[in-house]
Amino acid sequence: MLDTEATLEIAELVAEFKPGNADLIPALHKVQHRYGYVPREAMGVVAKQLRLGEAQVYGAVTFYSELRVIPPPQTRIDWCSGPACRLKGGENVRLALESVLEIGMEENTAGDKVGLHLAQCNGTCDFAPQIWVDGKVVGPLTAADTITLARELKEKN
Ligand code: FES
């Protein structure tokens, strides 16, 4: 939860933007550039400045993949949801990650140490089922490999 001081800071940050849709994405980018993500409270401030509904602002943040609703984690895991990875057991990889890390997709562990994200096929299907750890392909993975790796990442941070 951001305090009043932070809310005022965000209001100052987006004060240059004019009411309406046109400035929505630039305003959100400016907030993310400052905080590393778009905090929920900032969405309300941006909505007020642009005279838009908060749901519309939230919709934009969650629609554009370059915008984040949670802080960037120390270690980012992207789980490939593509067809080749799914066919080769990707769902078990996902379940293992969620179980060991105790989080769901688009969430961070406590202290923003490890973040788990849903990803699309990037063309490296030879390594299916796979994940990307800070952008590096790790695969093919079994559920057992995934449990070991997730435990290591959880303890490392
Ligand atoms: S389906 Fe996962 S990399 Fe292609």
What do you see in this structure?
This protein has 157 residues and is an alpha+beta fold. The longest helix has 14 residues, at 143-156. The model has no long low-confidence stretch (mean pLDDT 94). The protein has two domains: 4-63, Orthogonal Bundle (Arc Repressor Mutant, subunit A), CATH 1.10.10; 75-156, Glutaredoxin (3-Layer(aba) Sandwich). It contains seven helices and five strands. It is elongated. Strand 4 and strand 5 form a beta hairpin. Strands 2-3-1-4-5 form a five-stranded mixed beta sheet, with helices on one face. Helices cover 47% and strands 13% of the residues. Helix 2 runs antiparallel to helix 3, helix 3 packs across helix 4 and helix 6 (90-101) packs parallel to helix 7 (143-156). Bound molecules: FE2/S2 (inorganic) cluster. FE2/S2 (inorganic) cluster binds at residues 80, 82-85, 121-122, 124-125, 128, 130.
